[in-house]
Write a structure and sequence with these properties.
Layout: H1 3-12, E1 19-26, H2 28-31, H3 39-53, E2 58-65, H4 69-81, E3 86-90, H5 101-108, E4 111-112, H6 114-125, E5 137-141, E6 144-149, H7 153-163, H8 167-174
Parallel strand pairs: 1-2, 1-3, 3-6
Antiparallel strand pairs: 4-5, 5-6
Helix pairs in contact: 1-8, 3-7, 4-5, 6-7
Length: 181
Amino acid sequence: MSLKDQAYLAEHFTKKNPLRVQIITMSDRAASGEYEDKSGPQVSEHLLAFLGGAHIAHDINTLILPDDPDGLRETLLKAKDDELHLIFTTGGTGVGPRDNTPDVVIDVSDKIIPGVMEHIRLKYGADKPCALLSRTVAAVMASTLIYTIPGSTKGVDEYMTELLKTMDHTLCVIHSLEKHE
């Protein structure tokens, strides 16, 4: 986290032009109402604390989708057309037969940012080897930053703790807000 980057974002994203964020929970069971989504609201809590503390104007929308690659692809392409700035997906990042979130994100993205997710997998995988099975992705689609994170609440906490350390700088670079001195 850089106070300088946060200041650039606060200057750029105002009430008239807020940081437009979408949180997408990928879960067949949550989409069908079988259980309540907990990971999406948890991502929102982390973001609200970060953005509010940095005085960055924002508009956060949430959505629950079944683990359907076509539905996710359509949602991401609409977000691109709507020029959203930031997307978080939760769920669908494992190795199960319906886990397809990273594959769809990679398919629609222009750039992949491997380092941050590799760091998180290695950091938490050192104590919990199953964390290394996660196929999370950080990517850029046009001018939209996308993070795919696990659907577990523990995974959300771990990933958000790490992602928020570089998210502000990444957004500044994507939107050419960084002033090189």
